[in-house]
Amino acid sequence: MTVLVLLAGGIVFGAWLVIFPTPRFPLPTGPHGIGTRVSYWTDTSRPEPFSTDRDDHRQLVVQIWYPSSDDSPKAPYIDHPEIAAALVSRFHIPAFLLGNLRNAPTHAVENARPEAGAFPVLINPTGFSGFRAASLFWIEDLVSHGYVVVTLDQPGTAAATILADGKVVPMMPDKATFDTYMPLALSHSLDQTIDMHGVALPGGIIPFLADDLSFILDQLQLLDDDDPLKGTLDLDLTGVFGMSLGGYVAPEACHRDKRFKACLAVDAGKSAVVANEGLDQPLMIISRDAEVMRQERSKAGGWPEPEIEHAIGSQRALFERNRGDAYYVTMNGMYHVNWTDAPIWSPLVRWVGLAGPIDPYRGFALTNACTLTFFDHYLKGQTAPTICGLAGDQPDLRVEARMSANPGPD
Fold it and tell me: In this predicted structure, what is the pLDDT of residue 15?
């Protein structure tokens, strides 16, 4: 009997390790180590539309990831239990199953000393119901190649935002409500203003979220001389990148603020003004064909047909109308969550059809290669991105390019 109990326990434990392993994040491919720190910044010039208290101002939780040679113990993946709890609610799974996820080791050292030198800065807004480290594979690889990456939890759209005083700001209660503030609802009324808790939002929520990025850039420029990151940031070389909601916000920020020199947007539609007018900056769009989006929907749910048509149509419009150089990259093995770390949280994500047929680490590598060659060219002056810097045939990758005579913003 004892042997049977031990055997059953071993089988259960083994199954547990298979289904809910501690995620193994890909080893960054660049020569630099990684440091990280968290800051809390308040924009006193803007009220908070996600609060019913009209005295509240916009507060952002900002995580800065930077090159460092410090080799101290590594920071955990999720630094607040409230974020893990929000993910549990979002994915409808028992809370105890995410224990390994929360404490998964990263490759970053908390509050490490920055490496000497000045590095280009990339701001990364998160997706709807995401969190600031949700695409760690992307963040860490960029930093390892000599970039400072700034991620942020944006109250109301992040899974949960934990402010400096411990207050937890949840995301909007349902996507249907959020969608009323999105460009799909406003695409035929460029001057439409929607009110949220008494705060006017001209053009909906996307321009407001884009202004978060400009505020972050302002704050980085105001770092005092005693801040160890002061000389680490080359703020003349700044870019933005994001997926999902962040893929809406990134080009909107570039349209509104010419201090951003390059823009990368992944698997998202575009606001009407951005799609219709294009950007001055170099642009890379990464997405997949409509047929793949429909395949994802048939397996595990996903965008309804109007959203698919809006996403593909507005991406194509921006690509064709962009005034700076433009690249349209298609990765048809990917589903939406493949541009986050979710496919390596658990094999269940792939088994139930939430993730695409591509090997997750292959998807990470393709995304990182395209991202790095794009920013290396336009922010560091390195070789132009042809096939995302990859050698040989790439059957799961298609790249289209439109070169412009416009050198981009000064």
Answer: 43
In the chain the first and final C-alpha atoms are separated, in Å, by 76
Angle between helices 360-380 and 136-144 (to 10 degrees): 40
Dihedral of the alpha carbons of 204, 207, 212, 217, in degrees to the nearest 10? 180
Torsion 35-258-220-53 (CA) sign: negative
pLDDT of residue 83: 73
CB neighbourhood size of 237 (10 A): 20
Contacts of 230 (CB under 8 A, 6+ apart): 223, 224
In angstroms, the Cα distances linking 332 to 267, 286, 326, 344 are: 11, 10, 19, 19
**pLDDT digits over 72-96, tens only?**
888 888 877 777 666 666 665 556 5
What phi and psi, each to the nearest 5 degrees, are found at residue 306?
-60, -35
* Beta carbons within 8 Å of 338's beta carbon, 6+ residues apart: 331, 355, 356, 358, 360, 363
Q: Give the span between the Cα atoms of 40 and 279, in whole angstroms.
A: 30
Distances in Å between the alpha carbon of 373 and those of 168, 386, 388? 38, 9, 6
pLDDT-derived band at 252, boundaries 50, 70, 90:
very high
Q: How many residues can be counted in the chain?
A: 410
Count CB neighbours of 363 within 10 A: 23
Report pTM: 0.91
Phi-psi region for residue 125, left (φ > 0), alpha (ψ -120 to 50) or beta? beta
Record the tokens describing residue 127, joined without a space: 């997706």
Least confident span in 97-106, 156-165, 274-283, 320-329: 97-106
Strand partners, 59: 42
**346 has pLDDT over 60:** yes
pLDDT, tens digit (0-9, with 9 covering 90-100), for 82-139:
776 666 666 655 565 566 777 788 999 999 999 999 999 999 999 998 899 999 999 9
Radius of gyration of the chain (CA): 21
Query: What are 229's two structure tokens?
Result: 């990151």
Alpha-carbon distance of 131 to 139, in angstroms, equals 13
Pairing of strands 262-266, 283-287: parallel
Can you tell me the mean pLDDT for 173-193? Answer: 80
Contact 124, 91 (CB under 8 A): no
CA distance 360 to 347: 10
